[in-house]
Design goal:
Blueprint: E1 11-15, E2 18-22, E3 29-32, H1 33-39, E4 71-75, E5 78-82, E6 88-91, H2 95-102, H3 107-120
Antiparallel strand pairs: 1-2, 2-3, 3-6, 4-5, 5-6
Bound molecules: zinc ion (ZN) (2 copies).
Length: 124
């Protein structure tokens, strides 16, 4: 898959059965819808797929799977891109850390995110 932001090839990273695609160019992360479910955000109200799109001055980008323009959604103060037909969500560098710090994850999966953070510097 190609990065929706910078066009580089995404790299698949797997940990605790969760696969995410990471961009070595811009440091963003792509989660397929099924992978996102595995991450285990405890509270359904933080499910990005249920959010209505918001207007944003940020440049739109296309879903790496279907090439449709993605919607911006504001989940708990973090602006994410989601595919309009639910293929997945894109986190710019730093957004994944912002998001997981603002919601509760099942503890095993917090470790997955910590791992991603250590290896790919999502906290920077
Ligand atoms: Zn990129
Ligand atoms: Zn799509």
């Amino acid at each position: 898959m190609i990065c929706p932001k910078c066009g580089k090839m995404l790299v698949v990273v797997e940990r605790n059965k969760i696969e995410v695609d990471w961009c070595p160019g811009c440091g963003g992360f792509w989660f397929d819808a099924s992978e996102w479910k595995l991450l285990g955000v405890k509270d359904d109200k933080y499910d990005p797929f249920t959010y209505e799109p918001v207007k944003s001055r940020e440049k739109g980008c296309k879903c790496p799977i279907c090439r449709k323009f993605m919607y911006k959604v504001d989940v708990n103060g973090v602006l994410l891109d989601k595919c309009p037909v639910y293929h997945g969500i894109w986190f710019d560098k730093g957004e994944l850390a912002d998001f997981v710090n603002s919601v509760n994850l099942k503890s095993k999966n917090s470790k997955t995110v910590n791992f991603l953070g250590e290896v790919f510097n999502i906290n920077q």
